[in-house]
Design goal:
By secondary structure, this protein is of the alpha/beta class.
């Protein structure tokens, strides 16, 4: 069995100094591909270099909703340049976060729209971070990201919403990605979501270095651990 970690921050500061060992363990564990999420100029530069050494690592980039107030305007041209140059396999993780709300809500919406338009222009899918903002997210998605009557492709990463929110994601033809959170003992509601997602719309991820699955809680997460999440979902 080969696995894909659909979302990992391999080039983030807390991980990058160990990345060669992490990738070796991933390879030994049967991880065939990793989608590396780049969120600023440094992680993107590292990611492009990393993919040249490890062709099974693929890059995705945008400014997160947390950071758009601080550096969204500065970094958008860089993300756009690399999307248009073919260095990315998706645009993201963009989206909305009203739980932490590190950036103004209207500014989050503004950059979400810009990144959705970039994805359409470059014919790339989007990777979305959405927390406690689904009503606004779906409204923007339905108005800004539809081509010929159908939603353009995307994935809702690290989903932790309700069954009804999951159904709204799925009915738009999108993928829904589950992280190690689904393995936590108190994640009964999310486990019910896992049971109802069609396998052809289900992805798994680590969100390295965060959210290690139950047996590794408290440790830094890494792509090799995605197998535990896969096994847990299979058992459900």
């Amino acid at each position: 069995m080969k696995y894909i970690d659909s979302h990992a921050h391999l080039t983030s500061e807390s991980v990058f100094d160990q990345v060669s060992q992490i990738l070796e363990r991933a390879s030994q564990a049967g991880i065939a591909s990793i989608i590396n999420i780049c969120t600023d100029d440094v992680t993107l530069e590292r990611g492009i270099a990393l993919a040249k050494i490890y062709p099974w690592v693929f890059n995705v980039a945008s400014t997160t909703p947390h950071d758009v107030e601080k550096e969204g305007e500065k970094l958008f041209p860089l993300m756009e340049k690399h999307a248009r140059a073919g260095d990315l396999v998706a645009v993201g993780e963009t989206g909305l976060d009203y739980y932490y709300q590190h950036s103004d809500r209207d500014l989050q919406k503004h950059f979400l729209r810009r990144y959705l338009h970039l994805a359409l222009d470059t014919q790339l899918p989007v990777v979305i971070h959405c927390r406690e903002a689904f009503a606004d997210f779906f409204q923007i998605l339905d108005s800004e990201y539809v081509v010929n009557g159908r939603h353009a492709p995307g994935v809702l990463h690290c989903f932790t919403g309700t069954i009804s929110e999951a159904e709204e994601v799925l009915k738009r033809g999108w993928y829904l990605s589950l992280s190690g959170i689904v393995t936590f003992k108190k994640s009964e509601a999310l486990q019910e979501v896992a049971k109802m997602v069609p396998l052809d719309q289900l992805l798994i991820e680590t969100d390295t270095p965060y959210l290690a699955p139950q047996s590794k809680r408290g440790k830094m997460n890494e792509p090799a651990y995605v197998i535990e999440t896969a096994a847990f979902i299979a058992s459900l």
